[in-house]
Design brief:
Number of strands: 0
Number of helices: 11
Strand content: under 5%
Structural class: mainly alpha
Shape: globular
Helix content: 55-70%
CATH architecture: Orthogonal Bundle
Largest sheet: none
CATH topology: TorD-like
Distance between the termini: 21 Å
């Protein structure tokens, strides 16, 4: 685990949330005391939310936590961790949005792992922890999707809702148009299109269909300065 950097409580919250949104395994379990020490330095309400999740993670067998993670994030469309899905669904616009994420990271001198999708919330949060200004803007750009994910986790009574509550506590309250976007997403779901996609986008820009592969700690972004 890369320790949360001392660039403010929001950046620290984003780094810790990034770790907790990875696939739970024995390595994560071993890191829980370190994470708890980091969280103790954070102000409430985000700190309190993360503490609740860490207590749950410490009291839950790793296998059970991993099973819940897969059932929640891999099998429920409304609990998708890939932010461009909420805005663009499986349309050609999503491919363009993925390229824009990659461009943002490269401009900051960061490169993703070969198998990383740049819009995974854990990836975005990890980037935000190292570049708070740019990362905050990405989170704000996808505020409606993040809020819908939080609401879906709340409805599912998933302990992971506390991780999302911590993230949203670092962001401004929803504006009127954002609340409307959340309402429309909840009612209608992400956009769809009937036309074929292959003729219109290069392979790396193609939208990725659900279900997505689980992001495990071995897949975590090893951001390197170009």
């Amino acid at each position: 685990m890369r320790r949360a950097r001392s660039t403010g409580s929001a950046a620290a919250t984003w780094q810790i949330a990034s770790v907790l949104l990875g696939y739970p395994d024995d390595a994560l379990t071993a890191q829980l005391p370190v994470l708890a020490a980091e969280v103790d330095r954070l102000p409430d309400p985000g700190g309190a939310s993360l503490r609740r999740f860490l207590i749950h993670a410490a009291e839950t067998p790793t296998l059970d936590l991993a099973r819940h993670f897969v059932e929640t994030f891999d099998h429920k469309r409304r609990c998708c961790l890939y932010l461009t899905y909420y805005a663009h669904g499986d349309t050609r616009k999503r491919g363009v949005a993925l390229l824009e994420f990659k461009t943002t990271y490269r401009a900051a001198g960061l490169e993703l792992g070969a198998d990383e999708l740049p819009d995974h919330l854990a990836v975005v949060l990890e980037y935000a922890g190292t570049d708070p200004h740019g990362g905050r803007q990405l989170l704000l750009d996808h505020r409606a999707g993040i809020e819908l994910l939080r609401l879906a986790l709340e409805e599912a009574r998933s302990p992971y809702v506390d991780v999302l509550r911590a993230v949203t506590s670092t962001l401004p309250a929803l504006a009127g148009d954002e609340r409307e976007a959340v309402h429309q997403l909840a009612q209608q779901g992400p956009p769809t299109e009937e036309v074929g996609l292959a003729p219109f986008a290069p392979p790396e820009a193609m939208p990725v269909s659900l279900p997505f592969p689980t992001r495990r700690p071995s897949d975590r972004t090893e951001a390197t300065r170009g």
